[in-house]
């Protein structure tokens, strides 16, 4: 019986919608402030050159090896239990940082249109005030999309395709408005006064977080239509990285055209939206921009909700976490994993917008760790199974895979070691240490449990 599932277009919508969310509105001004216009563009090009080889690695593995669960499942098959646990544990961290970030950001977008939302103050935490309406908006989005994904992949897929289309339309309108109303003199300074290299490196460390999303494809590969050409998975994956990079570069140029140098930038505010409204003088264009951005936010959360639930479900089913998290519902969804994600996201929302910057940094590190182990696994795959059928092969072969390993390793080391250009900072160091200790405890507990079961 032929399985009717996700097509190449569906996989592209899943990955692209997950990658291009609200990052372009919230973080593009910060990239420009840190690096300057030309510096931010250079940083995005370098980031793309880093991520594209990773995309090639993912493409080769997901088209050549049939496993369920994404990265950790490939690493498990090729490198064993401990490396696969490290991969999955850090990837879960990356996903868990993504959910509250998205939920907190969507309330900021709505608050721009309706300032009265920022009333009924609850408390101030990490230097930012949390308001009751913003909290309610975040919670409605989290639990609404959780319910949608619990209904099954078909509902999630249809929603993702429609929302991604609206997102692309809003991009076109945004670009036209910026080129029509922007001023070329706003493009200056081309590089940050703090130094070209340091500014570019700061931008890269943030961009890595927003370039993730292509990895949703391997996690949902088991939902593919039975007639799909495996190479279409690779095309969707690499195409997402290429198009995402190009759009981010356009966003940087357009943002520079409308933003005035010296505008205050922080992750809880929306200086680009305000600058766009001042430049165009049109509230309607701003409303369209915000609606499109909210669609992007929702596609990001929806895509990662689907992929994250599959990751956690498969991770648990493999004996790395509570086994009930891997149970499938009658709709063939990991309902318990979806509920787990929703609960963690809810806790994150209660922490407020002051959590945004640490989440970006920590999430970027987590994804780098997963990418490193995927590249290592691809190298092992080449060594162990040189004659295996590969519908897609990494262009350039082992040297490109080795390059991916080298770059990921260098960036991880620079983020962890204090005092480097992209070191994470004290709060992230503490959070990372807590996550590593928790991971060690979880790994040892379930390893012991697995040994006991085998000895019975």
TrEMBL record:
The keyword Cell membrane applies. One of its GO terms (cellular component) is plasma membrane. It comes from the Bacteria. One of its GO terms (molecular function) is transmembrane transporter activity. InterPro entries: AA/rel_permease1, APC_superfamily. The keyword Cell membrane applies. Keywords: Cell membrane, Membrane, Transmembrane, Transmembrane helix. The chain crosses the membrane at residues 12-32, 38-61, 82-102, 122-146, 158-182, 197-215, 236-260, 280-301, 338-356, 362-381, 401-424, 430-446. It holds the Pfam family AA_permease_2. It is a multi-pass membrane protein. It is found in: Cell membrane. This is Amino acid permease. It comes from Hornefia porci.
């Amino acid at each position: 019986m032929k399985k009717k599932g996700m097509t190449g277009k569906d996989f592209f919508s899943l990955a692209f919608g997950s990658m291009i969310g609200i990052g372009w509105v919230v973080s593009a001004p910060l990239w420009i402030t840190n690096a300057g216009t030309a510096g931010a563009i250079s940083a995005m090009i370098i980031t793309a050159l880093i991520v594209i080889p990773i995309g090639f690695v993912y493409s080769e593995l997901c088209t050549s090896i049939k496993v369920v669960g994404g990265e950790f499942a490939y690493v498990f098959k090729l490198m064993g239990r401990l490396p696969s646990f490290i991969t999955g544990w850090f990837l879960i961290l990356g996903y868990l940082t993504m959910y509250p970030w998205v939920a907190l950001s969507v309330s900021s977008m709505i608050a721009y249109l309706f300032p009265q939302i920022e009333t009924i103050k609850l408390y101030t935490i990490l230097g930012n005030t949390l308001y009751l309406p913003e909290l309610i908006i975040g919670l409605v989005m989290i639990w609404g999309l959780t319910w949608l994904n619990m209904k099954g992949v078909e509902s999630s897929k249809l929603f993702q395709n429609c929302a991604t289309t609206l997102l692309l339309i809003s991009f076109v309108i945004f670009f036209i408005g910026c080129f029509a109303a922007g001023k070329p003199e706003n493009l200056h300074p081309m590089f940050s006064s703090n130094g070209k290299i340091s500014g570019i490196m700061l931008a890269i460390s943030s961009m890595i977080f927003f370039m993730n999303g292509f990895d949703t494809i391997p996690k949902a590969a088991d939902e593919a239509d039975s007639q799909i050409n495996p190479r279409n998975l690779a095309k969707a994956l690499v195409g997402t990285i290429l198009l995402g990079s190009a759009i981010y570069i356009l966003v940087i140029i357009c943002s520079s055209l409308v933003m005035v140098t010296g505008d205050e930038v922080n992750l809880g505010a929306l200086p680009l939206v305000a600058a766009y409204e001042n430049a165009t003088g049109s509230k309607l264009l701003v409303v369209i921009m915000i609606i499109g951005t909210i669609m992007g936010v929702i596609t990001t959360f929806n895509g990662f909700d689907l992929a994250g639930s599959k990751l956690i479900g498969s991770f648990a089913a493999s004996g790395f976490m509570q086994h009930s998290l891997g149970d499938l519902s009658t709709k063939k969804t990991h309902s318990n994993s979806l509920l787990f994600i929703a609960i963690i996201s809810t806790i994150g929302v209660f922490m407020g917008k002051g959590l945004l910057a640490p989440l970006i940094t920590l999430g970027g590190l987590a994804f780098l760790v997963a990418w490193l182990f995927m590249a290592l696994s691809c190298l092992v795959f080449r060594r162990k199974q040189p004659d295996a059928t590969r519908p897609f092969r990494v262009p350039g072969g082992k040297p490109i895979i080795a390059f991916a390993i080298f770059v990921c390793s260098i960036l991880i080391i620079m983020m962890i070691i204090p005092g480097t250009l992209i070191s994470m900072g004290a709060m992230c160091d503490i959070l990372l240490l807590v996550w590593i200790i928790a991971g060690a405890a979880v790994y040892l507990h379930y390893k012991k449990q697995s040994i006991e079961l085998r000895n019975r």
